[in-house]
Amino acid sequence: MNKYLMDLRKGKVKYLMIEEHIKNLIDKNKIKDGEKLPAIRELARILKVNNITIVNAYKELQSKGYAVLKMGSGTYAKKRDINRNLNREYSRALKRIFSNEIGDYIDFTGETSSGEFFQIDLFKNVLNEVLDRDGSRALIYQEPLGYEGLRKSISDVFWKDSVNPEDILIVSGAQQGIDVVSKAILNTDDSVIVEKPTYSGALSVFKSRRSEIIEIPVEKNGVNVDKLEKILQKNNIKCFYTMSYFQNPSGISYDDDKKKQILRLAEIYNFYIIEDDYLSELIYDSNIKYNSFKSLDHNDRVIYIKSFSKIFLPGIRIGYLIPPEKFRENIQNSKINTDIATSSLMQRALDLYIRKGMWKDYINMLNIKYKDMYIYMGKCIVKYLNDKVDFTKPGGGLHFYLKIKDSIEIDSISLFKEAKRRGVLITPGSLYYKNPSEGKKYFKIGFSHVSKENIKRGIQILNSLMTI
Amino acid sequence: MNKYLMDLRKGKVKYLMIEEHIKNLIDKNKIKDGEKLPAIRELARILKVNNITIVNAYKELQSKGYAVLKMGSGTYAKKRDINRNLNREYSRALKRIFSNEIGDYIDFTGETSSGEFFQIDLFKNVLNEVLDRDGSRALIYQEPLGYEGLRKSISDVFWKDSVNPEDILIVSGAQQGIDVVSKAILNTDDSVIVEKPTYSGALSVFKSRRSEIIEIPVEKNGVNVDKLEKILQKNNIKCFYTMSYFQNPSGISYDDDKKKQILRLAEIYNFYIIEDDYLSELIYDSNIKYNSFKSLDHNDRVIYIKSFSKIFLPGIRIGYLIPPEKFRENIQNSKINTDIATSSLMQRALDLYIRKGMWKDYINMLNIKYKDMYIYMGKCIVKYLNDKVDFTKPGGGLHFYLKIKDSIEIDSISLFKEAKRRGVLITPGSLYYKNPSEGKKYFKIGFSHVSKENIKRGIQILNSLMTI
């Protein structure tokens, strides 16, 4: 008898074959995304196998991301993440490029300040002062909440003492903040609302928690509140992930009115706002005022996340979290389970740097430098891409999000590939959507890692690629 | 009508009441741990509510850890983790104590080297050399795999070039290593084998991934291989988490024979070995030879995790992972999703420290110092606790694991509380077991944060507490 037919007799192989078969049907769209799979008993009867064989096949499908189990309802087919290949290609390309250092590329993918304006000598002095002051304790002493001095500085300088240092948790940047919060508060099948488009690193974390992700399109000044409320009426939402200023990638900022409306909804519909305060230090448009969700929150509805890495120094890997009281202990424990504590010397150095006023000076300087770059890139876009793209000026931050006009045939993935070949790196919009095809007419260009000369040259190259 | 009965009409409240009722029954042991809950339709019919109300009640139970869903089978009651309260009390006590710095306590809870022998001036010079050499790049440049120089040093110094630097992933300590690996390879309901007892931080991560955790008792030189194989025959195991040398807490080390047998089983039963190489640098007994699972592995079955924090400097938060090829990309991406990258200046400093031979000198010195402490603590245990506890000398590492003799009435949780009152901190064994009551006759004492004088005094106090 045929080997494969022989194998069928062994239960172990049988379930894998069934799983393989269903997987193929899903891949080939014979079974649609979201379609209910047959009940276990029914399929077992049809295929003349034990129930357990089907259970195992479905489990395998689930573990490979081809099916989801909904309690009291059944198992549903799930189209594999088509983003995966693109994500992979994009990150591989960047990894390869960065591992040879950036070389001759014009790099529009930067999402952080570049550090070219950073006075390393000042920081070196600060580091030495810490080591002289604290000795080896600076490298040994671990506080799960983070270095107390730094928590006090943050409370004092950034929150004018309105937040208790005990309620601040130091983390290794915003990405870790999102991860730690997700592990603490999200269970499998919990629903999370995100902005559409949104930061791909957050999407990855929520997917990894196996949360249901619901996207709401961003408009000029935040998500549409009516749409948000409709979703809240129909779904049991655990949290809403938002970047309140210069959202990555769309560049939009929330106005106060919208923030207050959303905070009200959070109270009514009992959900929490994960506020990723991305680049609010860099406001160039004087009409934009800084009021975080957190600062407007009277009901302890905000999980505030702030990264120091993006604005300050990417390699320093420090940020902080302010959790609502309800989740405080869970989130603290989640941080401990993630990596015990964040590197202590760097926390001490950052603390002293803030206390000495160097932080403020540095941010002021970045505002002057980057505003200049921002204006310049805006002008270049208008000058060279005016008939190719639509965009809104963010008024702050480090990037522009551009929509390729409908009349232009190229999509952003092809543009990414072509541009790479010509020595220009852009970020295709597809990375920022649950369904990547929705982002195919968008791309992001940042100015923090590029000289003015190269901003112009890079945009000219993009122009030529979109003209062809 | 009674307010609560009125509330029942509103669906939203109804499911919470049902959930509350079932929770109480589980807490009071009226519904046993593992008992199957009624089918959704059946319970809905009995209670005369909609199916969706029961679905929501069961979901709520699940999310609070009071129930688990097994596909194709139903929902099962789950006794809340009774470890939780103890864990919480223990970690709160330690947090409180540590936040006032350790003060007058005799601290036997240390799991890392203390840093008192660390020459901070040498390290300060290294840091300054890095900053002079690399400038602000040392704080800006982020490599997702970790600083290339450090990966090369690790390959060169610790693996004599048998591991490719590209296959090494820098992480922020072993705890992050376990977390990153779990997120990359463990799906809900995957089964993990752990040693009994085992490191509580690993238990927490596996629980948080909602994995099924199967414990195998450790014996003199590792887990019982027959028992392991029996479990492998009956279960589909994804991985086995092990600490190969001076296991935390039992102190045992695997012999080569056992390591080879387990590697063979990994190949036959298709599972992976997560090797947490804890404190293998500190071998005092010359009969113990260092051969990691990783070094004996010919089939790419080992996920090797090494922390530099424990032996070197806790606050430095650096470690590394060597994943098998199969999981390499997933694990790398999981690290990126966790926190992008590990603090770069510290990596550069550690690299230079290793290259200059300072690492080797430091470890040699620690071996001399800690061997002396180890011998001293061993003698004190024999002298003062001989009729109170049984133990095996680990032959290395930083702690002893003691079993309170059956004739002694006190359990380790009471001993922990009493000792704390007398100024002595120990770690109760209960933290290291899935079912904490199994650890109630064990406790751990470490010698790395205590002077000889205090080792003696602390053990004398423990003796007096066990005598009463």
From TrEMBL, chains A, B:
<dbReference type="Pfam" id="PF00392">
    <property type="entry name" value="GntR"/>
</dbReference>
<keyword id="KW-0804">Transcription</keyword>
<keyword id="KW-0663">Pyridoxal phosphate</keyword>
<comment type="similarity">
    <text>In the C-terminal section; belongs to the class-I pyridoxal-phosphate-dependent aminotransferase family.</text>
</comment>
<dbReference type="InterPro" id="IPR015424">
    <property type="entry name" value="PyrdxlP-dep_Trfase"/>
</dbReference>
<dbReference type="InterPro" id="IPR036390">
    <property type="entry name" value="WH_DNA-bd_sf"/>
</dbReference>
<keyword id="KW-0808">Transferase</keyword>
<dbReference type="Pfam" id="PF00155">
    <property type="entry name" value="Aminotran_1_2"/>
</dbReference>
<dbReference type="InterPro" id="IPR036388">
    <property type="entry name" value="WH-like_DNA-bd_sf"/>
</dbReference>
<dbReference type="InterPro" id="IPR000524">
    <property type="entry name" value="Tscrpt_reg_HTH_GntR"/>
</dbReference>
<protein>
    <submittedName>
        <fullName>PLP-dependent aminotransferase family protein</fullName>
    </submittedName>
</protein>
<dbReference type="InterPro" id="IPR015421">
    <property type="entry name" value="PyrdxlP-dep_Trfase_major"/>
</dbReference>
<keyword id="KW-0805">Transcription regulation</keyword>
<feature type="domain" description="HTH gntR-type">
    <location>
        <begin position="12"/>
        <end position="80"/>
    </location>
</feature>
<dbReference type="InterPro" id="IPR015422">
    <property type="entry name" value="PyrdxlP-dep_Trfase_small"/>
</dbReference>
<keyword id="KW-0238">DNA-binding</keyword>
<keyword id="KW-0032">Aminotransferase</keyword>
<dbReference type="InterPro" id="IPR004839">
    <property type="entry name" value="Aminotransferase_I/II_large"/>
</dbReference>
<dbReference type="InterPro" id="IPR051446">
    <property type="entry name" value="HTH_trans_reg/aminotransferase"/>
</dbReference>
<dbReference type="GO" id="GO:0008483">
    <property type="term" value="F:transaminase activity"/>
</dbReference>
